[in-house]
Structure prediction request, 210 residues.
Amino acid sequence: MAKQYSSDNQARISAQPRLHQSAPEIQPYGTVNHLLPLELEEPVRLEMTERLNPLLADTITLRDLYKKSHWQVAGPTFYQLHLLFDKHFSEQSELVDAIAERIQLLGGVSLAVAPDVAETTRIARPPRGREEVPVQLSRLLDAHQIIIRDCRELARRASQIGDDGSNDLVVSQVLRTNELQVWFLSEHLVNMPLVEAQDDVYKVWLLSSQ
Ligand SMILES: [Fe+2]
Prediction:
């Protein structure tokens, strides 16, 4: 018996990586672990994970929209927008991780890969090709608006059902980051003269407002 155990053990110990393994999943999507020492009942955690996953899908989509814009931007503002889009990409990446890990710590299962994200996001799919800067900016702002609206609803509901952690994540991190990024983008859509001040435009505005 001892010899048998020894030969089995030797068979298992090897430097050869075990490749191409598969097994049934250990937790289906859309479920939460039954018991966790979080002082949050299972129905609360289930509802929050169901609401956080669409927010995650939208945030992944916006993150990727920023990289698309970073790569494909063109024109006289190329350099500053190229850098700004990448900065916002990095900030959105941090939000993606924070939301996904919130879902996991609540006992749920986070969305992760592109086909699942594409099926879930509420942000319109952009064309594969390149677009003008004002269109890129508008597309990003529309995506932010969807996320900001969702944040406010989600945060209110989280507060109602006692999930203060999700409320804090959504307000302090997701909402505040998105609001700030909206400001940085929307200021680029103000029609300002680049070289010569157009004081006559101001006079027309003054006359029309009297
Ligand atoms: Fe880059």
